[in-house]
Specification:
- With 338 residues, the chain is mostly helical.
- Helix content is 55%, strand content 2%.
- The longest helix has 31 residues.
- It is globular.
Length: 338
């Protein structure tokens, strides 16, 4: 099986081969090499599944042990003399309760470096799976999209799911990775300072979308993944990438809830929450959308008043445009047109 780095495949896709060879990912099977193409497709599908599962499992695992990781990374940063160096972010950069200093303590250094490591792992694993998916698209069976009318409902679901996730960026949950910023007006602060500051404590208040579900950012990935797989033809390779991402969203949200139940401390971007506040938020909200409403823990009146409807509408429109562009990119990858 091919186990080269995913960037190599993106480069090879544009290398002009000669003497009967085609760039990686652009080969079209002919009747005389069906067996070869079938074997290659199976190899790609295996790699897609392995890489996507690696992405999902590493995300959940790193979140489960992140307090220990943060402590160890912070200790390493301290040993490397990266802590308390006096370096600061520009005043215009929105800071938090720790101020503008870079790595002022071992704990903060550990948190920031953990985020960098988390991002690198995400891009390398999911990027690898996506690169293999691009190559698999060029193998039989080639992607033949149905008429738009036949997948209109799937486009609508995917667009609405994207709209909810985008709207949640201004209505975040403590269980997401989206920080909260608020106006910061202080006469004692230099006039060149940022007019906003980070305040993640506001994430511990059920509001708007979080009254519907405590996971408004990640949970919409579930319908988006399955509908995108169907739009792309519903082949094994499609469900191995997009279907596993949907399952990851469910498992990841459930794992976050479990950490709250066990009172393990930090979740999302809330690293040092008051456990009573976090438990209150957990008790007032629900994993399953609208379950808290059905159980009278939340009110539909509050939801109607607080949901950022303009952001939801704009997000859905933007989500539709992104979905079309994304599918077009994938189809053009194998020389097809919508």
């Amino acid at each position: 099986m091919m186990r080269n780095h995913w960037l190599l495949f993106l480069i090879l896709r544009h290398v002009p081969f000669v003497s009967g060879f085609s760039p990686v990912g652009t080969t079209v099977c002919t009747p005389c090499d069906v067996k070869t193409c079938s074997s290659r497709l199976y190899a790609y599908e295996t790699e897609i599944g392995c890489a996507t599962i690696a992405f999902a499992s590493s995300h959940i695992a790193m979140s489960a042990i992140r307090n220990d990781l943060i402590d160890r990374i912070g200790d390493a940063a301290y040993q490397l003399n990266w802590v308390e160096t006096g370096l600061k972010l520009p005043d215009i950069w929105p800071g938090d309760e720790a101020g503008q200093e870079i790595f002022p303590t071992k704990k903060i250094a550990g948190r920031q470096l953990y985020r960098i490591m988390y991002t690198i792992v995400s891009f390398s694993t999911l990027g690898t799976g996506f690169a293999y998916y691009l190559n698999a698209l060029a193998e039989d069976p080639l992607t033949t999209l149905p008429n738009y009318e036949d997948v209109a409902i799937h486009y609508a679901i995917a667009s609405l799911a994207s709209g909810i996730s985008l709207a949640s960026l201004i209505n975040p949950s403590p269980l997401s990775l989206v920080p909260v910023y608020e106006p910061y007006n202080n006469a004692k602060v230099d006039r060149h300072s940022a007019p906003i500051r980070r305040n993640d404590s506001r994430k511990l208040q059920a509001y708007g979308l979080t009254r519907i579900t405590r996971h408004p950012l990640i949970l919409p990935v579930v319908p988006w993944g399955f509908t995108t797989a169907i739009i792309m033809g519903g082949h094994v390779r499609d469900f191995l990438l997009f279907g596993i991402l949907s399952l990851y969203a469910l498992a990841g949200c459930a794992a976050q809830d479990l950490r709250v139940i066990r009172q393990e401390g930090s979740v999302g971007t809330v690293f040092n929450p008051e456990q009573s506040f976090l438990q209150d938020f957990f008790q007032q909200t629900s994993f399953i959308p609208f379950q808290a409403v059905l159980e009278s823990r939340q009110s539909m009146d509050d939801i109607v008043k607080e949901v950022p409807w303009w952001a939801l509408v704009v997000g859905t429109v933007v989500g539709y445009q992104i979905q079309q562009a994304f599918v077009s990119f994938l189809v053009e990858n194998v020389g097809r047109a919508l």
